[in-house]
Amino acid sequence: MRIVPGPYQTRAHHWLILHGRYVCVARKPRCEVCKIADLCPSRELFLGA
Ligand code: SF4
Questions:
Q1: Is the pTM of this model over 0.90?
Q2: Whose CA is nearest to atom 1 of ligand 1?
Q3: C-beta of 42 in contact with ligand 1 (< 6 A)
């Protein structure tokens, strides 16, 4: 709630669920196609970069 502006918060909730379902999947995150990889502290861990 600190990061996402108020008007986007309801939609952002659903976007994050979909992101977890289709991109940032638990067993093998798809960091190579992730649109928010530049913001993610875990990217280097999964890409090995
Ligand atoms: S870069 Fe981060 S948010 Fe994106 S898929 Fe990888 S672990 Fe998930």
A1: no
A2: 37
A3: yes
SS (H, E, C) the chain: CCCCCHHHHHHHHHHHHHHHHHCCCCCCCCHHHCCCHHHCCCHHHHHCC
Take residue 31 and report the two structure tokens written for it.
């960091």
Counting atoms of ligand 1 from 1, which one is nearest the CA of 35?
4
Check if 46 has its Cβ closer than 6 Å to any atom of ligand 1: yes
**What digits encode the pLDDT tens for the residues 1-49?**
898 999 999 999 999 999 999 999 999 999 999 999 999 999 999 987 5
